[in-house]
Structure formats: C-alpha cells, structure tokens
Amino acid sequence: MAETVLSDEIWKNWDKTGKTDFLKACKQLLKDESKSPVFAKDERVTQIVSCLYNFIVRGIRGHLKKEPVVSTLSELVAIHSDVCGLICDVLNILDAETVCSENPTEERNNFCTIIKECEKFLSDKVLKERLEIDTLQEVGILKNKSFYTKFIKVKTKLYYKQRKFNLYREESEGFSKLIVELNFDASDSKNILEIIQSLIGCFNLDPNRVLDVILESFENRPGKVTLFIPLVKSYMNYPKIICEVLGSKFCFYHSNTESYTPKSLYLVTALLLQHGIISLEDIYYWLIPDDKVMVKEAEKEMKDAKEYVRKLQIISIKDKDKEDVPEEKENVQEKYSTNQKFGLCEALLDIGDWDNASLIIQILPEYVAVDQYPIALALCKLLHAIIEPIYRKYCVIAPKIKGKVIPPLPNKLAPKPAEKFTDLRKVAIPMLVTLGPSLRYDPVLMYKVIRIAKAALSVTNAVKEPLNEDSLYYDILTLLDATILPALSFMDCNCCIAEEVWNILKIYPYNLRYNLYSRWKNETYQQHPKLMLKRGEAQKQIKNIMKRVSKETIKPVGRLIGKLTHCSPGFLFDYVLLQIQIYDNLIHPVVDSLKYLTSLSYDVLGYCLVESLTQADKNRFKHDGTSISLWLQSLASFCGAIFKKYNLELSGLLQYVGNQLKAEKSLDLLILKEIVQKMAGIEAAEELTDEQLDAMAGGELLKGEAGYFSQVRNTKKSSLRLKEAMAEHNLAVALCLLIAQQKYCVIYQETENSHLKLVGKLYDQCQDTLVQFGTFLGSTLSVDEYVNKLPTIQSMLQDYHIHADVAFFLARPMFNHAINIKYDQLRKLDPNCKKLSTSAKQQKYHEAVKEVMAPIVESVIPLHSAKVWEDISPQFLVSFWSLTMYDLYVPIESYQREINKLRQLSLQAMDSKDVTISKGKKEQERYLTLMEKLQDEKKKQHEHVEKVLYRLKQEKDLWFLSRSVKSAKNETITQFLQLCLFPRCVFTAVDAAYCAKFVHTIHMLKTANFATLLCYDRVILNKLATIIEKRVEKVRDEEKNQRQDLFTLAISYAGQLKLRAGQMIKEADFHQMTEKPKSHDNITDGDSETQTKSVNGEIKEKEKQISDSTKENVAKDTKERAEKKSSRQQSDNAYTKVKPTPQSPTYRETIGKERSDKEKTPQYKDVEVKEKHAKKDKDDKREESEKDRDRDREKRKERKEEKLALKDERQYRDERYVEMVLSKDEGRYTNDRLQSDRYYGGSDRGGHYYDDRDMGSLSNSNNSTNLRRSSQEPPETDRDPKRRKMEGPNSKSSKHEDRKIQHQVDQFLLEKPEKKERSSKTKDKRDKTTDEEKELRKERKLGRKRDRVEEALLQEQKRRRDEEKAMKMMPHNNGEMMEPSVHSREKHHHTRDKSPYTRERERSHDRTELRDKQYPFHA
User: Fold this and answer.
1) How many CB atoms sit inside 10 A of residue 1087's CB?
2) Is the model's pTM score more than 0.70?
3) How far apart are CA 771 and CA 764, in angstroms?
4) How many Å apart are CA 827 and CA 844, to the nearest integer?
C-alpha cells in the first residue's frame, strides 16, 4: 500500500528531499514500461493510485502548494502514458469528495485550479470522458452551453432507437448463405463464426434471427456437438438471450395444438444445459405446464386412488344396471407429449446429464416424473451403462455365458461407469432410489441390481462389519426399502425375482427385515397412487379366494394364493389372518393351502403374525374379562400349525414373547405353548389318566409311548428348527427364566385388578408352559448343551430370584448329569471296576452324590432362616427337590402294558392283509426293537432306583434333627409341608405323585422324627376337605347371580367331588382323637368338667334305652341298610381292628400318660415314653387287638340301631311341624319363630340338635333331586343374618355353643316317652292333608334338612379346632399315633360327605378364617 511506499517525512520535507523521494517511489512502481500497470496481476496499480490520491489530496487541502503538485503530475505523465488515465480517475473520485467535504468552498477552488493547470498535459478527451459534465463546465473545459442537450439526443439515438435489420421477407440471400455454411461439413467453429459475422455485416442480418438459425441447424444435426456447442458459446455469450430464443420455440409448440414439441428441441436444450451454456433456472420458466397444475393433478390422482380403494370395502346393494358408468381413462401418451418438462427430463437422461435431470425430478411432485414410462426407461438405460463393469466382474453366471454387453455412454460429461462397489454410492444408488417403484419397467436391470447387492454383501464382508466405509450394508437396505420391494409389488406371478430378493434379505437379521416389511406394507403403498390401485385389486381377489377355501379346494385355492402373494404378500396375509381370527375352522385348510408360497412370502407371514399379535386396538380378553379372546387363541393355534409345517423363522415371534414377559405380560405364553406342542410334540397336559401318570415315572421311551395323549410323529426336524432358533439368539435360557419369574408376577402384578377366573387361567397357563418348555429343553438339548447354557442352581436361586420348585425343576438334569459323570469317575478309579458288586456300586453312587450335591446343600442354607433348619436339614430339602418319580419307583405295570401292546401290534402287522409282507416284517422288527428297548430301560431304571434307595437310607438319619422331643414332629411336618410337599405337589400331576411316593418312602425307610400319620392327617383331611371343596363353593356362591356358566361348572365340580368322595379316605375312617385336654381357655371353674361328664353319661344311658325300644320296629330297615352299606362296614372292620377302645388297657395307659406328661419336663417325657414302648410285649398287643375288635363290632351295631331310631323320631317331628303350620292358629308363629325352628328344631321339640350321622340317610335318599330343588328354591334372605352370626368369628367362646347343643340333647331325650302317642295322632291328621299341603310340607322339609346340615357342619368345624389343639398336646412316633377314645369320637366326629347341602350353605370367608387358624404358616 501507499503507507509502505511513502512516509510522512516526504510530505514534511517536500521542498528539500520529499519531491525527489516521491518521484523515485513512483518510478519504481512504473519501471516496466512495456507492460501497463493497469493490467498487472500484482498490487502495483493499487499502490500507484494510492500514491496519486494522497499526493493530490494534500494539494487540495493546502498541505502542499498547487504549483508543485501540478509540476509533479506533469513529470509523472511523462514517465508512463497510462498515468494520465490514473490521474483522471483519482480526480473523478476527488470531485465527489470535495462536493461533500466540510470546507467545500476552499477545497473546491483548489480542486478546480489543479484541473485547469492539468489540462495542459492531460488529454482533453480523457478529462471529458472521466469527469462529470457539471465539473467540466465549472472548470471551463466545456464552453458550449447546449452540450447537455446534444448529449441526451445522442444517448437516446444510441440506446433507445431500434435499428432495422434485414429479415426473411425483405431479403433471403444472407440467411440462405448462412444456412449453407452451417450445414456444410465444417468442423472448425472459429471459421464458421467469422463467416457468420461477415454475413451479418454484409446483409445486415438480425443477430437474434441468426441465433435461431444456428439452433435450428443444431436440431437437425444433434450429433455435431463439437461444432455447434463452441459456435453458440462464441456467437452469443448471453444465456438469457439464448433461453428467450428457445422459450419462443417452446411457446410456439404449446400454442399449436396440432403438433407436439419435437424431441430435437428437447435434445438441443439438454445439450446446452449439460455444457453450461444456459441454466436450468432460465429455461424452466418457459416450459409448460405450471408446477401448481402438476401438483393439483398429482393430488387428484392420489385422491382418486384412495376413493377407489374405499369403494372396494363397501358392499353395494345397487343393481348392476343402475351402477355409475366408469369414467373414460385419459390418454397417457397424449398427456405425456404435452408436458414439456417431462420431455426435457427424458432428453437430459438420454444424454447422461443426471445432475440437471435430478433437479427437474426433485422440483416436480414425488415420483411423478419417474412414473412416466419413457423417463423410467431412460434412467434404466443410464443405470445399465453405469453398473455394467462391476456386474461383469462379480456377477457373471458362467464364463461362457456372456450375455448382452452394454456399451459405455458416448457423452464424456455423462457419469462414469462404476469399477468398484464404493463407486455405486456416488451415482448408481441415488439413481435407483430416485427411480423407486418404476424399476419394474426393466426386470433385467432389477435382477442385475439384486445380484450386485448380494455380491457386495458377500465380497466386502459387510455382514460382519456393517459400519465399515467400504461396506454397502445400509445402502442396500435403503435400496430394498425405496426401490426393490415397491417394484416387486407390480411384478405379478414372478416367483423367481421374489426368490432373488429373498437371497439378499435372508442375510439381514430378522429385526431389520421386519422393519422393511412394516414400511413396505404400511407406508410404501400410501405414497404411490398406482400401488394403492394395485393393492385394491389384490384385496378384491383375495376376498374372492378366501370364500372358496375348504378341505376339498386346497390345491386350486393354494395356487391362487401363491400367485397373489409372490408380489405383495403383506396386506394379503393380513386379510387371511383376519379370517382365521373370526373362523377358527379355516386354520387347517389355510395352513395346507400355503404350501405354494415363496421363501419371501413365508418370512413376511412370520412378520404379519407378530404384527397381528401386537394389535393395540383389539381386546385380548372376552367382554366379561374372565377368559382369553377367541381371536388370540385362533392365532396361537395357527402359529403352532404353520411353524410346524413350513420352515418359517421363529426368532421374531420368540423374541416378541420374551419382550412381553419382560413387560410382565404372560398372555402371549399361549403362543409359545402351541409352538412347543406342535413342533416338539410335547404336550402341556393338564390332566393325566392313571395309566399315563404311572408311565410318566418311567424312562424317556416309556413316556413317549404311553405318557402322552397323542403320540406326535415327525417332530424331529421341526423340534430341531425350534432349538436352532432359540440357540441363534440365546432365547432358550432367557425365555425359561422369564417364564419362571413371571409365574409369581401373574397374581400380584399382572392381574391385580382382573377377574379371579382369569387370574387362575393365566397362572395355570404360565405353569403349564414352564413345565412344557423345560421338558422341551431337557429332551432336545444335549446334556452338555443344557449344562453350559442354563445357569447354576445357585445363580437361579440367588441372582434370578427363582423359587425352589422351578429352579430345581430346571436344574435336575444337570444334577443327574454331574452325578453320573462323577460316579463313572469313581468307578473307573477302582482297580476292580468291572467286577464291582451291587453294594459297592451303590456305595460309589452315594459318594458321587455327596460330592456333587454338597455345594447345592450349602447354597440353599441362606434361603431360609436358621429356625427352619432346626426342624429339617438342608440335605433333606435338596434330596427332596432333586429327585423325581424316576428315582423312586419303577412302573412295572406300565412297562408290561406297553410291551404287551407292542407284541399285539407286531402280530397284527404280520396278519394284516392290507400290508405287504416286506412292510409287515419291517413293522414287526420295529415293534420288537421297541420291546427290547423298553426291557432294557426297565432294567436300567430298576438298578437306578436301588442306588437311590441306598443313598436315601444313608441320608435319612440326618434329615430331621429335632430341637427337642416335645415339639419336634409337629414343627417338622409344618416345615415339610410348607417348603417341600405343598409347593411341589401343585407343580405338576407327576410331582404330586412323586410327593406321595416320597412320603411313602420316608415311612418305609423308618426315618426318625417323622410322623407319617400326622403328615397324612394334615394333607388329606385338612387340605382336600377344605381347599378343594371350599374353593368350588366360593366360586359357586359368588357367581350364582352373575355368571351362570361358572355357577354351572362349580355345581358340576361339586358333583364330581361327591362322586369321588367314596374313593377318598374319610375322616371317620382315618383316625380317632383323644379327649380334649384341659386348657385355661375352656375351663372357667371347677364344676364345669364334672357337669359335662354327668351329662355325657346321661346321654349314653338314654341312647341305649332308645335303641332297645326301636330294635323291633326297624329290624327290616336295618337289614336293608346293612346290605347297602356292606362295603363300608368291611372297610370299617378292616381299620378298627387295631384301634384301642376306652375299656382297653392301651387306651387307659395313653390317657394316664398324657395327664402325667403335663407335670413332667420334656426330657423326662421322652425317656418315659421310650421305656413304656420298650416294655410292651407282642402277646399283649395281640390280645388287646382282639378285644378291641370285638368291642368295635358291638359299638357299630348299637350305632346303626340308634340311627334308625333317630330317623323315625325325626320323621315324626317333621310331620308334627307341618300339622302345626297348617292349623288355624298359624298366625301365632312369627318369622322369627320359624327361623328358630329351622336352626333348633322348634320350641315344641325341645331344641333337638341333629347329628350329621343322622343326616346321612336323609341326604342319600334325596341325592338325585338336590340340584334341581336347590335351583328352584327362592333365596332365603332372612336366614343369612342368623347363619352369619353362627358361622362368623365373634367374641363368644366355644363353651356357649357346647351349652346350646347340650340343651338340645336334653330336650330331645325328655320327649322320647311321648313318641308313640304323638305318632298315632299324626297319622290321623296326615290322611286329611291335601296335595298342596303335601308339596308345601316337602319344601319345608328340605329347608329344615339344609339348616340342620349347616348346624352339623359348624359343629364339625368346632370339633376340628379342638382336635387340632389336642394333636399338639399328643406325642407321636414314626408310624404310630395314640388313638383317641371311642366316646369322644361318637360325640364329636361326623362324616363330611353325606349331604350335598354342606357345600351349598358354608360361607367362603368362614372357611378362609378356619384354614388360617389351622395352617398359620400360610399367612
């Protein structure tokens, strides 16, 4: 800059040295005289102008004198000729500055003086050219006052007056010469340009018309690009003028309706665009139609497509003749020809100008341009040329099969062909994405693209490294989504290309594939009007096809379905699945008809199944909220059938079930249950027959042959596919653990507000699926795979928080595997391993078990408190949970049954006439092989059971280590039931059988400190009698007026329980309890006990009198009833042979021992009990048992006679009651009195209390009509408060109830002498009653019966509480229990299974409270 050249010292010392330095600096800048500094590429001109500006400014402002300034400028002009122009430019700038300065007068005068002096050495023309007119006049250079007027006239003539050129109509010679020159074979554009310029000057031709002629010649000879492009560029370098000329041509063809725009014009325009002579923005303005018009047309097309699809969903009831006539379709070719934007886009693609073509495509509405057939073909042709080298390099089928070779594009400005896979990312992939569904117009190109994509994924290792820069992993996904799959939707019945697409898709994981299918089915069809029309037509066809689906039309219908699904399977499967959800009988025909699908269609079907299951708008439960919806059950059944029959990928569906379990939703376990059942042949059997249950205790072969309802064949391949699908994504263990965890979330989290019935179903489903899935893993996985994949038992219990029942169920195969390995190791270490005896093998087995199970025993200790381990040992807990029925019991009968069955089948195979001899022999050999295998399996199991029993014998003494004798057994049984028996017996039916067998094994082994009878008493009486019956009754009571279906089911189950009651051990036949010991709660003073004894004695004497008086009258009835109950008497006789009676010394000894134990310490009691048992002699026991047997026979006879007598008395009292009701003074009895009669037999009857044993015959006689009458009887609401008062827990003690019962018995005994007199009067009045009175009397009898049964049930419950307390006070030994007195049994014990009304009248909340009292550990 000037500051770098000049300094302030120059101006200060101007007269001395400043002028010299200034001139020297300027000469330095102007030293090159040959070249002008004005056009120099360096900064010299800027520095010169800056120096001149600073110098003149100082002269104007007075810093320097004017004379030195002018003289110095004259010297500079002499140095270089261009300085004159630079000085004038600086003066022009200063002219404007002086006008706007702060001191305009002085500076302006100095400025004018300098200009006047400079006129001497500056050119007059240059000053007039550079300075303003006003300044020139002010200085005096312009002396003519009319100069300004002349200037305006010249300017107007020069710029605004139109010149007249020579046109065609005036003289054509110039234009004809021009045309000849342009069409002559000349290649040099410079010569042509000179000729054109000479012609224009000679013939005065219009330049714009000359340009038009040049462009016309270019249209006729488009191949002469090298000639015309430089010519046009040289002749007219103004793009807008060229665009105006071209625009006038386009407008001409637009206004001319008789002809269309020629392709040559599009081609010339495209070439000019490609070479950059014109811009797309300038020419696009002249093209028609307008963009707004095209947008409206695209919207109308989309609207029409949606309306068409909507009308297809409507069922028309109009006559076909009256239907609207469809509109005529517009001419597509004509519409395309009139659209100049389409034509230009096609021309651009033809010459390979992708950049400008893509701009036009982007400006227009989406897919509007590429939907045009000519444009799509032009783009496909361009793609062929681009991908040709890479296709020939990687995708040639065979060397000798060359195929059609595509030549490269001749245009050098076109995109270059791709040599590497990464080159495709630059041009080819964007072109394909832009092409979209229009790729359907060129199937050959589609095949090439698919094969190149497959090669790119395999060659570049894109699957393992998808994020690599050279990988096209995600680019190909984009291609599939935007181009390949939408194009496939248009390619009808082309299964080959569908398989090619699947070859790419199967490389990707299922989650990416399902994402593609989702977009394909739900989004792609909404973006393209033509795809929407295609979808509507396909839906119309699938509806017609589904109407003809049946078993008889599987093949033809299957072929039609296959053809439709080749191109667009997604929405078609939606409709098929919808029909299956509505009509479940279509499942099997549809499954069979899907055998003609492609692999891609099968995979899409798997996705559609998952999508159907995730439908949020569908309710998964029925309207009542108590059961699973039918549509979900149908889908689950279809899933099992389709995955079993066809090779569909299971990963997506299994992962969906796993995700649902993570979200604490177990409803979809129904799907997993069906899949495992169908594919692996493992049933989730809810109920097994006795034969099946026995067979499930055997080996795997016996289970497969006799353990399941249906023997599913041909499951080897499908089970292997299921195993591989789970192994691929590590779903086996995850699903197993999630199901185990969900099992305990169903009740408390998932179904917190659900109906009780639904909660039960979901819990049972979760349990069944867990057992089924665990069985599948154990049977399908090899032992090594099972051990390696499943976590250890410690991890399941502590890390995954899985309960012991499930954890041990899953870990048992691992235990057995580890024990067997260890056993083999120990056996091989022995030098005599081949000659080991049975006892030695058993000892080795026991050692292996100890070594393997020791860590397991240690791991369960932290699960429970130390108090628990005081009653049972951890070793016992582990032994119980680690064993199975296979370890304890050999089902010999089941083995023999199956062997006999196979033997019979082998004989039938040889005798069958329908089978050839060779086939019959093969069948016979197969049966014989199975028989041999079963024999070997039975032998191996027998040896295994002996080893296990030996192990248990060695462990039994360490199982129950009592804290002290006084409370050991009761607490032990409680812990055993809570931690072992109850959790496992409800796991499966096989586990329930195992529990029974294990208790029997404990008893058989004579395990110390374990009371078998106490265990049976707690299990059989307390559980079966309370839990099962009460739960059924509760459901029946709750749903009586709400859900008739549940009410009916509850009645049915109650009836089944009643029918099976004869097979169960009854409480009366099971045990007798000793007299209840005294306690502070029941004894209030000293007289109460004496009073009770006297009453009991009185009752005994009076009962004997009654039986004597009625013996003769009821002899016949007694004989008949004795015959009917002979079987029951036999069981009674068989059991009572060993029971002690009150007169027996054993009984007296027991009572004495019990009383004395209260005053002794626990240690002393144990010693005394053991000494007494040791002193007993076998002979004494035999004599006592014979005496007891005789006494029991006499007691039973007396009891039967007493029952008959009481029955007659009850009949008489019923008849008397009816007579009283029908009498004239009936109004005296109030409702309260009637209710008291119902509960206590009426005031006239002395408040007699009816024993449950007396109700047995009455309930049996009316057994067939109980259900009918109970449904007809209106509800008695007045009775509820009374019953609630009696049954509910209140502050009254049991002592009050005893007094009430005693009062009733006394009143009954006082009325006995008057019996005969009343009976005679009753007979006379009974004859006079009418039929209506008889019916009323029957109804009242039934009501009284039910009331008396309820009272008996209350007393039974009270008696059980007393027995429970007495049981706690009684000492027990293994296999023995002190028998209660017969007197106590006759007073308190009543059977539960004689009347059906006992289950009708009991209230649920009372049962729950009683059960909580009996089993406190459940709380």
Assistant:
1) 8
2) no
3) 11
4) 7
